[in-house]
């Protein structure tokens, strides 16, 4: 197909007089090629972002699991330390209350962050399409 468009382009250079139908056909073919190229760019960009997000999510999940185990060990240590001055049940109740308070604060903060998140979009491809549209508009006005 590329060879055909190259031959057509060479013929158009040799013959500067084109019918409106030929010009519309040429513009339609070029626009179709441009749209396909932009779609490929968007797909590649989203695939790359998806891979990065997957790796990042996996690493964050592993960090969260290890942190959870560490938090349980820290809670047990705090209970053991407080049980030197209080009954074990009171020490466990205090540590449990502190952990639930921290969890509540983190949940509120996380909810705010999620509300502010925007859906992932292929920003480069969108910007490229905008530039293409502006170029087409500019050339159409000449």
Care to describe what's here?
It is a single chain. By secondary structure, this protein is an all-alpha fold. The chain has helices spanning 2-14, 20-82, 88-116, 123-140. The protein is rod-shaped, with a radius of gyration of 31 Å.
Question: In brief, what are we looking at here?
Answer:
With 142 residues, the protein is mainly α.
Note the main attributes of this structure.
single chain; mainly alpha; 0% strand; rod-shaped
Oligomeric assembly:
single chain
User: pLDDT below 50 for ≥5 consecutive residues: which ranges?
Assistant: none
Secondary structure tally: strands:
0
Profile the largest sheet.
Answer: none
Q: What is the radius of gyration computed over CA atoms, rounded to a whole number of angstroms?
A: 31 Å
Order of helices and strands: HHHH
CA distance, first residue to last residue: 29 Å
Shape: rod-shaped
Helical content band:
over 70%
Strand content: under 5%
What's the helix count? 4
**What is the average of the pLDDT values?**
84
Which class do the helix and strand fractions yield?
mainly alpha
List the helices and strands and how they pair.
Blueprint (H helix, E strand, L loop, with lengths): L1 H13 L5 H63 L5 H29 L6 H18 L2
Helix pairs in contact: 2-3, 2-4
């Amino acid at each position: 197909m590329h060879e055909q468009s190259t031959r057509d382009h060479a013929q158009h250079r040799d013959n500067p007089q084109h019918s409106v139908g030929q010009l519309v056909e040429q513009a339609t073919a070029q626009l179709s090629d441009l749209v396909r190229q932009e779609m490929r760019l968007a797909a590649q960009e989203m695939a790359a972002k998806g891979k990065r997000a997957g790796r990042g999510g996996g690493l964050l999940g592993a960090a969260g699991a290890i942190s959870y185990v560490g938090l349980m060990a820290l809670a047990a240590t705090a209970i053991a330390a407080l049980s030197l001055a209080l009954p074990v049940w009171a020490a466990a109740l205090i540590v449990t209350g502190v952990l639930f308070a921290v969890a509540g604060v983190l949940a509120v903060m996380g909810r705010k962050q999620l509300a502010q998140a925007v859906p992932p979009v292929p920003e480069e491809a969108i910007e490229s399409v905008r530039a293409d549209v502006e170029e087409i508009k500019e050339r159409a006005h000449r």
